[in-house]
Amino acid sequence: MLNRVPPLSPVLKGLQDAAELSLISSLIAEQIGTECSVLMGANIANEVAREEFSEATIGCNNPDMCGVYQNLFNTPYFKTTPVQDSVTVELCGALKNIVAVAAGFIDGMGLGGNTKAAIIRIGMRR
Predict the structure, then answer these.
(1) Is residue 96 among the annotated active site residues?
(2) Which residues 6+ apart lie within 8 Å of 83 measured at CB?
(3) Potential cystine with 22: which of 3, 14, 16, 64 (Cβ 3.0-4.6 Å)?
(4) Which helix (H) or strand (E) is 47 found in, with range?
């Protein structure tokens, strides 16, 4: 079955800095010659490895493959939700990381939970 599953780029997200913005999955798809799906979540690798609860969104434009990827990745501690729009999933994952970095700065500066909550809320509103 796995030899028939199109590529999924689960470990990368973001935009290439160029004259025009390019999604990382688009760059990979262009290089390997096939469409890529994406797996995005707010997960820390060592927590996933310790089998602590984690969740992620699968962005897959091929509706037939959404269920295949969900079955491949779902475990009792790692839950996935498929969405048939890989571009939006990848963009939201990249933008989420910007907000997460800002929240980390707030923690590092010791500015408190209210400031961090405000940064997260404002970041999500944007």
Answers:
(1) yes
(2) 57, 58, 59, 60, 66, 89
(3) 16
(4) helix 45-49
Structure tokens at 96: 């989420």
Question: Nearest to residue 25, comparing CAs of 6, 16, 38?
Answer: 38
Q: What crossing angle do the helices spanning 113-125 and 86-109 adopt, rounded to 10°? A: 160
User: Is the separation of the CB atoms in 79 and 29 below 8 Å?
Assistant: no
Residue type, 117: A
Flag whether the pTM goes above 0.70: yes
Q: What is the pLDDT of residues 19-49, one digit of tens each?
A: 677 788 888 888 888 888 899 988 888 999 9
Token pair belonging to 114: 């209210």
- Rounded alpha-carbon distances, angstroms, from residue 86 to 41, 99, 113: 13, 20, 32
For the chain, give the DSSP string. Answer: -GGGSPPEE-S---EE-SSS-EEHHHHHHHHHTS--EEEE----HHHHHTT--EEEEEE-S-HHHHHHHHHHH--SSEEEEEES-HHHHHHHHHHHHHHHHHHHHHHHHT--HHHHHHHHHHHHH-
pLDDT for 15: 58
